[in-house]
Amino acid sequence: MGNKNLHNAKTAKNDEFYTQYPDIQKEINAYLEYDPNVFKDKTILLPCDDPEWSNFTKFFAQNFDNFGLKKLISTSYAKASKFKIYGQMDLFEDTDYITKDPNYQSNIDAEKGKIFTLTRKNKKVDINDLKWEYLDGDGDFRSDEIKKLRDEADYIITNPPFSMFREFISWVKESSKGFLVIGNINAITYKEVFPLIKENKMWLGATGFMTDMVFEVPKGTEIKKSDKDKAERLGYKGNYTRLGNSCWFTSLEHGRRHQPLQLMSMADNIKFNKKLKDPKYPKYANYDAIEIGAINAIPSDYDGVMGVPITFLDKYCPEQFEILGLTCTAETMLNPVRLGEDFITEYRRQGGTGHVSANMYGVCYYGENGQAKVPYGRILIRRK
30-34, 168-172, 238-242, 331-335: lowest mean pLDDT where? Predict the structure, then answer.
């Protein structure tokens, strides 16, 4: 599941990825299709989005009247704070148009963030020349100034720093506001995130997480060649990267999440499904559940607990299945279990490698020919 760019973003803090306008438009349209009035009379806060060039800001400013918004607020980090958080300056630091902006003040630009506000009292705005002002502080979402804006808003929508995703989600949760944010698919396993998914307070967005999303990055950012090439094939040439493991997390309803999976019976899967790696649906050696390695191999007629890949959440229908837990940590697992000494001894004897130990939380099983296997974190589900 690992993606080198996302891993680098987490470790080196080079996680300033600028979302493209078409990706925002595609995602937002799904919520409007489900409920045309989803944004009517609502206040939207776009934190971590520089109003000078954020596509989130431009998109919602351009559609302010179409959506019937009450208020739009966009804020950004000060340059000094941005450097501290991201490990780099902003996307357009090497351009000179900033100094030509009448609002620009070199003596405070490094220390104060920016804010753009749009209400129904405003006259028609030019989305390519949004008029911003300086905040009192540095624009950090954890500051009292931005918290006050958060508490005023109905929805929080943004692409937060990937390296701060845990803290950002906790910050959103404090307010009980609706949200739509971009993150790494592996954030599903975070103890700050999974309980929200289990309690049906968060789910994946409408854009399938295996859908390539392209992001603009600051000049000089290390980009994996294959991701840069893929971005070019998708029409983005220059400082762009493709992140295959990025996805949307939200609390807003969309129709895609209520579409049930079309499944076969266990007998038919065993007979016909070529993706079923362990034809007999092995039971875990340390847990009362069966292992299912492919989403389309989930049987339609099994009533017990099943362990499925985390990619299941991209197809999860709450009317069809109940989420019981996640096997990675004690905080998220239903009846936590460890791998155990006996299993690990056999696993090593068979030549098993990797970072696994007897004290690790997780499930394990014996596949065909008695092969000891430790699957990546599994979501435990049960059919309704």
Answer: 238-242
Could you give the residue ranges of the DSSP H alpha helices within the chain?
A: 4-12, 21-34, 55-62, 64-67, 79-86, 97-100, 106-109, 144-152, 165-175, 194-198, 225-233, 266-272, 341-349
* CB burial string 322-353: b at 16+ within 10 A, e below: ebbbbbbbeebbbeebbbbeebbebbeeeeee
Angle, helices 55-62 vs 21-34, to 10°: value is 50
* Other CB atoms within 10 A of residue 123 CB: 4
Phi-psi sector, 91: left (phi>0), alpha (psi -120 to 50), beta: alpha
Instruction: State the number of CA atoms in the 13 A half-sphere of 356 facing the CB.
Output: 25
Between 1 and 84, the higher pLDDT residue? 84
Q: How confident is the model at residue 105, as a pLDDT?
A: 63
Backbone angles phi, psi at 297, to 5 degrees: -95, 0
356-383 CB burial, b ≥16 within 10 A, e <16: beeeebbbbbbbeeeebbbbebbbbbeb
Does the model's pTM come out above 0.70?
Answer: yes
Where do we find the tokens 């911003």? 132
- Direct distance between the N- and C-terminal alpha carbons of the chain, in angstroms, rounded to an integer: 28
The SS3 of residue 165 is: helix
User: With pLDDT > 70 as the criterion, what percentage of the chain qualifies?
Assistant: 86
Distances, alpha carbon 279 to alpha carbons 61, 267, 378, in Å: 53, 10, 18
